[in-house]
Amino acid sequence: MSILGFVIMLAILAYGAIGTGTPLGAYLDPPSCIIVVLGSGGGVLMAYGAQFGAAFKAAFGGSADGSALAAGAAVFRTWKTYSLAWGFVGMGIGWIAMLAGVGGSESPVATAALLGGIGVSLISPFYGLFFAYGVAHPLASRCSRRLDASSDG
User: Fold this and answer.
1) Nearest-CA neighbor of 52 among 83, 75, 20?
2) What pTM was estimated for this model as a whole?
3) How many domains does the chain have?
4) What is the rounded distance in angstroms from the CA atom of residue 147 to the CA atom of residue 142?
5) Is 8 within the bounds of a domain?
6) What gap in Å lies between CA 21 and CA 30, rounded to an integer?
7) Could you give the C-alpha distances from 104 to 49, 99, 108, 109, 110, in angstroms and in order?
8) Under 8 Å between Cβ of 123 and 97
9) Which of 7, 53, 102, 142 lies 20 to 30 Å from 68, alpha-carbon distance?
10) Are 65 and 122 contacting, i.e. CB atoms less than 8 angstroms apart?
11) Does 147 map to a domain?
12) How many percent of the chain have pLDDT more than 90?
C-alpha cells in the first residue's frame, strides 16, 4: 500500500502542475534534486552510519525487530529534518547563482544565469518539503506504527 500512496501523491502533484498550464518538465530540476536528496542523505549517513541501510530494511522488510524499527523511525525523522534544511541550502545556492549573473557596471546582466538561479532557488525548497513530508515522514511513521504493533502483539 505504501507504493500506492506514493503514486497517488505524485499523481496529485502532476494534476496540480498540469492544472496551472505549466509543463511537468518545469518542475524537474536535477541539480536541486541532487542538492536535497543526496545532501540530506549524506548528513543522515554521517549521523547514523550503518543504521542508514538498516532503516530501509526496517521500513520495507517483511520482519524486523523492535530495535531496528526504532532506529528506522529515528533515521527517517532525521532525514525529514535534514531534507528541509537542504532545501533551503539549495535556495541559497540559487540566490548565489542568480546574483552572480548580475554583472558590474561594465557588464550586462546574464539573463540565463539569473533565471537559472531563480529556478533553483524556488524548486529546491519544494523538493525539500516534498521529500520531508512525502517520503521521509511517511517512512518514519511506517516504522513507528510497525514498532507499536510489534510491542502490542
Assistant:
1) 75
2) 0.83
3) 1
4) 9
5) no
6) 21
7) 46, 11, 8, 8, 11
8) no
9) 7
10) no
11) yes
12) 44
* 58 Cβ contact partners less than 8 Å away, ≥ 6 residues apart: 64, 68, 69, 71, 72, 73, 143, 146
Question: Per the structure block, which three cell numbers stand in for 76?
Answer: 527517517
What is the C-alpha to C-alpha distance for residues 142 and 111, in angstroms, rounded to an integer? 45
Judge whether 87 and 127 are in contact, CB under 8 Å.
yes
Range of the domain at 101: 29-152
Q: Residues 128, 133, 135, 140: is their CA dihedral positive or negative?
A: positive
Asked whether residue 23 is assigned to any structural domain, the reply reads no
Instruction: Tell the residue number behind the cell numbers 507499536, with chain if given.
Output: 148
Cell triple for 90: 539549495
Alpha carbon distance, N-terminus to C-terminus of the chain: 22
Lookup: cell for 55: 532503516
- 151 contact partners, CB below 8 Å, separation of at least 6: 66
Sign of CA dihedral 1, 147, 71, 76: positive
Burial of 76: CB neighbours in 10 Å, binned 0-12, 13-18, 19+: buried
- The count of residues in the chain is 153
CA-closest candidate to residue 94, choices 140, 68, 126, 72: 126
19 lies in some domain: no
